[in-house]
Amino acid sequence: MKKITQLRSSLCTLLITLTMGMTLTAECHAERLKDLAGIQGVRQNQLLGYGLVVGLDGSGDQTTQTPFTVQSIVSMLQQMGVTLPVGTSLQLKNVAAVMVTTSLPPFAQPGQALDVTVSSMGNAKSLRGGTLLMTPLKGADNQIYAMAQGNVLVGGVGASANGSKAQVNHLSVGRISSGATVERAVPSSVGQGNTIQLELNTSDFSTASRVVDAINRRFGPETAAALDGRAIQVKAPVSADQRVSFLGALESLDVTPAQTVAKVILNARTGSIVMNQAVTLDSCAVAHGNLSVVINTDNAITQPNALAGGQTAATANSGISITKDAGQLMMLKAGTSLADVVKALNAIGATPQDLLAILQAIKASGALRAELEII
Asked: What's the subunit arrangement here (predicted)?
């Protein structure tokens, strides 16, 4: 067990080091505008419905614990003209109450097919082999936008040997490919007016300014104007065909986004640490249990020979000292970067809780020049 733990720690350290190396050395490259921003009004809409899955092989809801399944069956039979005698007790082992979910894509038209996800909301053991009855799917405005029906497919792998069984899948959730049909289109404002509005995925004034410059260089001056750090107003053709061609060319523009704010993300459960760019540290000292972290800068003066033509210069050598149990274990003379600190702490077996406490202390002291986000 100890060897497995050490191997796991070594692998985590290697992954963290490789991730930091790739992240810190990456340069900003041009990206397509469609990857940086979206068009206002072009979005998905979530749909939700309540339905019944029938035809199960005795793996449905236990009606004594899920009365809503019985109520749904009684209501459905009444709509079909079947009236049950008063006091009838139904034992519906082959029926399960489910929630049906999907997303209505932008510009969806009546007749278009959608994939749906069927999830048990009772205590059914399995939805395998069942059939979803016609289920209306509603949007946030409580209007019906699609109808779902079809055979539920539950994927997975089952195996049995010598009387023992193994099941590797989730039996209470299934999918129906092309199981819903769009009945109503969502009105779109993209084809109206003589302007459209771009919305950056992340608010950034520098990136918004660069997008405006790229659009104006491509389509002419005063074509685009930034409204704030996220929204950009763009003049577009009035004709629908010309507007589609214009938006296609607009989305294909290459824009180099501005460098985002320095951020360190720490997963407190797994100990994973990710940085989006080079994160620097100022001089500080942290003591945590039997661990001590000291970051300092040693100033050195370099003076050339009297006969040489050079100049006297002052340099700064940054050092990171990691000690444990009052004994020095590692001294790094590279730049004072958080990557070196994390690597050193992992080398001496610091736990995720140790990393969390140390980084929080460095951030609180003002020595960490980045945002610290803990997830």
From this structure: The basal body constitutes a major portion of the flagellar organelle and consists of four rings (L,P,S, and M) mounted on a central rod.
pTM: 0.68
Count of residues in the chain: 375
Q: ∠ CA 248-194-254 to the nearest 5 degrees?
A: 30
Query: Closest Cα partner for 180 from 280, 108, 246, 239?
Result: 108
Residue type, 366: G
Q: What is the DSSP letter of 368?
A: B
The Cα-based distances of 276 to 26, 51, 266, 302, 371 in angstroms read 9, 45, 12, 34, 10
- Chain centroid offset of residue 117 CA: 20
- Strand duo 144-151 + 371-374: pairing: unpaired
Domain boundaries, the chain: 2-27+261-374, 45-157+167-182, 190-255
- One-letter identity of residue 207: T
Q: Please name which of 85, 166, 150 lies closest in space to residue 113, comparing C-alpha atoms.
A: 150
**What are 180's strand-pairing partners?**
114, 148
